[in-house]
Amino acid sequence: MLQVITRAQAAACVREQMKAVVPRTETVDLHRAAGRVLAEDITAMLDVPGFDRTTVDGYAVLAADTFGAGAAVPAELEIAGDVRMGEAPSFRLRSGQCARIATGGMLPAGADAAVMVEHTEEDAGVCLVFQGVAPGENITRRGDDVKVGSTKQQKGTTLGSSQIGVLAALGVRSVPVFQKPRIAVLSTGDELANGDAQPGQVQDVNSFLLSAAAEACGCTAVPLGAVPDDRAKICAALEQGLQAADMVLISGGSSAGTRDMTVDILRQYGDVLFHGVAMKPGKPTIFGMAAGKPVFGLPGHPLAAYFVFRLLVREAVGELLCLPPDRPLAVRPLAVNVPSNHGREEFLCVRTDENGCLVPLHTKSGIISVLAKADGFICIPRDTEGLQKGEETELYLL
Amino acid sequence: MLQVITRAQAAACVREQMKAVVPRTETVDLHRAAGRVLAEDITAMLDVPGFDRTTVDGYAVLAADTFGAGAAVPAELEIAGDVRMGEAPSFRLRSGQCARIATGGMLPAGADAAVMVEHTEEDAGVCLVFQGVAPGENITRRGDDVKVGSTKQQKGTTLGSSQIGVLAALGVRSVPVFQKPRIAVLSTGDELANGDAQPGQVQDVNSFLLSAAAEACGCTAVPLGAVPDDRAKICAALEQGLQAADMVLISGGSSAGTRDMTVDILRQYGDVLFHGVAMKPGKPTIFGMAAGKPVFGLPGHPLAAYFVFRLLVREAVGELLCLPPDRPLAVRPLAVNVPSNHGREEFLCVRTDENGCLVPLHTKSGIISVLAKADGFICIPRDTEGLQKGEETELYLL
After folding, report:
1. Cis upstream peptide for B89 (omega within 30°)
2. Residues of chain B with C-beta less than 8 angstroms from the C-beta of A48
3. Is a pLDDT exceeding 60 seen at residue B1?
4. pLDDT of A135 above 80
């Protein structure tokens, strides 16, 4: 067994190994891009808006023509024409002229402001303007929103509705994204059942939980199901995973003997980088590289496996796709004292009570009770005296 | 034009109409269920755990045999056998006996506790126990986590990693879910371009933004692209949408004339339920039913269309899929005073500053600037004097 290292050291080791892995990219239609991760910076290829336009319904004018206009003394402007939506006006405004225009319409050459229709009256080809405007009033200039050449979306951005709206407004219709990393998920254990359990068996949770976690961070899960603690079967599944996926997760092997078997198998296919992380739960975590692909050995207990996924597997995905770190989303006070566990970082599922305080959930109460009630989890740092009631604590969302 | 109604009235009207729409359901493999919405309550078909089991590595015992055992006076127990993982022990413990067992192993009949291996020594078929245990110690009983027949997941639950973990642990391998509602998304406007813009044209944003918003709330978008403000073309697209989808969104028609055209077209195909909602932006919102399907007329401005999506279209989806309401996710103080807009609820995009306070973003600064910077949006209630700096304000996340 290698020496136990800290989670920070483990994360650094994972990131370091992933630097050598080259992510694949592809180009997808913007309509299919939600949830995907940009593989390149997107730079504006055009100004937005692309032309000077009005922000009101009314008349395009030369502001100077309206100076001093008021209710008693309106400015009288000849109507030179209509601006049609979506078209460049074919005419130019001269002093003394105006043009009918709707919100978003392109200003005719010569115009430098717009008058709201509410401040006008029209009569026989003449528009009376009852309120003067300053140059630039009621219009936006070309490039006011975005200047051509500015970077608008960065590599590593996960595309949500807002980001897709931004890209659409820039005229982008297809985007370079990372291919979704494929994560093979294998459960091991003589006790695992798949739906139909005999006495003494328990349901395989990890192949479902970890597959869902993989999909939640932008990957495609390749579920390999559950196999007994049998060397030949685990080897066959690992080979299948290495062929079909970019990363392999093997969970289970809770007894010391089986853990060593996973390490041993990984050594047969590649290198073991660490075995043992100073975190609770999650201590027996294994990480190595085989066939140039990362392989994780995760604990068999579903919550422990999930924590290691969020804290270490997610680091590998993040490094590959240039994602921002998976940070706690909120800071909330603790509802009770939480004792420390010297020497290992400890992770605890919590729920938020009616006062917004965090209540730790004890895993002893059962996997489902915890998973169904937890809003997230917290970290108790190593070598502390524990956390005090009321202490502001970072909450990772489940 | 129908009378302008409040947003609450509009939402109630939408929900009322949706009660008559029957959602379609399907059964999917649990591995494919992430992000889907349960169409039925899921009740536990088995106890979890399914048998009494240990929570430690060590020996299954009769607690009474260990009473009074200590470092000086160990209890001596005959080793009756080994419990194999995943199997029901074939033997029964009698008083004076114990059985080797690993964490999660099934207790043999007769046993009522487990002793940790750290508190024992083994010698020639005999186990010395140096610390007594009470009945029930270091074991969990059948059904401690979940009792058969209890409801574990409710209809309308969106399945994330935790929920999938819960279902897996219950032995569920396929789940009844709602079919994803199909939402057809049409943009209208003579000024709209699709990627390659002529002078005077602007990029179509809404078919992308609203499609992404539809996918984000568990629907499948059916993008219909952009058409000019032409009655025949809008009618053709509406017919296509009604055929291909469960709901149709028509955005655009910013001028009074086109708005009336959309209302008029909707009347031709069905009933207009409301036209005009006392919200800013979003006032010209139209809602009706055609061919038994909801049809929304949304404003052309992307942010306005997005607000109406979140506040009214999402209500229709929520009613159909039994989703919980789309609530603000946090409460944060305002960084500045925000003036009121008497008579209409007002919605404003905001970003969170470095102190966690909300800063309103002015839509005048441009669509992209707002979409790229906003973390969410807030609501200023009708008929208030505005919101004060420091006031705790609900934040809807974008």
Report:
1. no
2. 203, 366-368
3. no
4. yes
B314-372 residue pLDDT tens: 999 999 999 998 888 888 999 999 987 778 899 999 999 999 899 999 877 678 889 88
Buried b (16+ CB within 10 A) or exposed e, A215-227: bbbbbebbbbebb
Confidence band of A2 (pLDDT split at 50, 70, 90): low
Judged by CB atoms closer than 8 Å, whether chains meet at A366 and B146 is answered as yes
Chain B residue with minimal CA distance to A257?
Answer: B102
Residue for token digits 């919200």?
B279
All structural domains of chain A with their residue ranges: 7-24+180-321, 27-47+148-178, 53-140, 330-397
Q: Is A330-397 the same fold as A53-140?
A: no
What secondary structure letter does DSSP report for B312? I
CB contact under 8 A, B398 and A161: yes
Please give the Cα distance from A235 to A152 (Å, whole number): 46
Q: CA of A209, closest CA in chain B: separation in Å?
A: 5
Best mutation target, B54, B137, B208, B355, to test chain A (most A CBs within 10 A): B208
Nearest Cα of chain B lies from the Cα of A382 at a distance, in angstroms, of 24
Question: Chain B: nearest CA to A18, how far in angstroms?
Answer: 25
Helices B7-18 and B314-321: crossing angle, nearest 10°?
40
Cα–Cα nearest to B369, from A7, A324, A398, A48: A48
Query: Looking at the DSSP assignment, which residues form a beta bridge with residue A280?
Result: A346
**Which class does domain B53-140 fall in?**
mainly beta
- Helix, strand, coil percentages in chain A from 3-state DSSP, rounded to 5: 25, 35, 40
What single-letter amino acid sits at B321?
Answer: L
Burial B177-200 (b: 16+ CB within 10 A, else e): bbbbbbbbbbbbbbbbbbeebeeb
Averaged pLDDT score across all residues of chain B:
93
The superfamily CATH assigns to domain A330-397 is MoeA, C-terminal, domain IV (2.40.340.10)
What is the separation of C-alpha A35 from the centre of its chain, rounded to a whole number of angstroms?
7
Is residue A254 over pLDDT 80?
no
Question: pLDDT tens, A42-98?
Answer: 999 999 999 999 999 999 999 999 999 999 999 999 999 999 999 999 999 999 999
Which residue has tokens 């970077």? Answer: A151
Q: Which CATH number fits domain A7-24+180-321: 3.40.190.80, 3.40.980.10, 3.40.630.30, 3.40.190.170?
A: 3.40.980.10
B213-to-A271, B184, B317 alpha-carbon distances in Å:
44, 12, 12
Inspect the interface and report whether the beta carbons of A173 and B195 lie closer than 8 Å.
yes
Q: Over 80: is that where the pLDDT of B259 sits?
A: no
Altogether, the residues listed in chain A come to a count of 398
Work out the minimum CA distance from A167 to partner chain B, whole angstroms: 8
Q: Which fold has domain B26-48+149-178?
A: Molybdopterin biosynthesis moea protein, domain 2 (3.90.105)
Does position B45 have pLDDT exceeding 60, yes or no? yes
Q: How many angstroms separate the CA atoms of A261 and A263, rounded?
A: 5
Q: Test B365 with A145 for CB contact under 8 angstroms.
A: yes
Distance CA A70, CA A130 (A): 5
What does the pLDDT read at residue A255? 58
Find, in chain B, the residue whose alpha carbon is nearest to that of A106. Answer: B200
Residue B118's Cβ-count burial label (10 Å; 0-12, 13-18, 19+) is exposed
pTM score, whole prediction: 0.93
- d(CA A167, CA A72) in angstroms, rounded, equals 48
Report residue A343's pLDDT band, with 50, 70 and 90 as the boundaries. Answer: confident
List residues bridging with A380 in a β-sheet: A346
| ipTM computed for the complex | 0.93
Please name the residue of chain B whose CA is at the shortest distance from the CA of residue A173: B195
Judging contacts by C-beta atoms under 8 Å, the chain B residues touching residue A172 are 195
